[in-house]
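User: I'm curious whether this sequence folds into something compact or stays loose and floppy. Could you predict its structure so I can see for myself?
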Amino acid sequence: MYIKNKKQWLFKDKLEWIMALTITRWNKPVISSRMAFCCSCTSTQQLQLSSSPLNKTLQQINNSGVIACLRANSAELAIEAAVAAISGGISVLEIVMSTPGVFEVLQCLVQDHPTMTFGVGTVLNVENAKNATNVGAKFLMSPATVKDIMEDVRGGEVLYIPGVMTPTEILSAHDAGAKIVKVYPVSGLGGIRYISALKKPFPHIHMVASQGITIG
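Assistant: Here's the prediction. I'll summarize afterward.
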């Protein structure tokens, strides 16, 4: 689904209303950027969390309601797109590993926008997880549950958001220590209806609905 209006309601039903902001589309030769949105789907009860850095990140994601996911095929364009997203009201931004110079881009953004919540997506191994953490990532996302990463970040200050698809995977990730999971690819599973169905048996598990809301 493409976002066309400055304000477009994405989800309702028993989930909280979530609003996405328009991000500028960059029409440049050769290089391109792509912005997608992951929507935070929490329980109707307000989060009761300690003040640890990890829980603070979870609270910031919950407060935002939207994680903007940025892909670009140049570091320069990635920074340009990120700054535009921030100017448009985005407060939580994920930069995927396929972006050239992703760690340098992240380090630059963290230095220039210290109050923002930045993370890295499509993290598949511990080495990349450590590199992202070292330059200021507050959260890490994977398209699947990578047990080595989950073990490596356990007890640390970085929030790991593993990818899940089925109820069994959701519960397994939660039992292994995940504070929030990424339901992916949600558009191919029924979208809002699938998330609503999952929240009935798992109202206590925080979820991010990923894929299917795109700009670019």
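Summary: Residues 1-32 have pLDDT under 50 and may be disordered. The longest strand covers residues 33-41.
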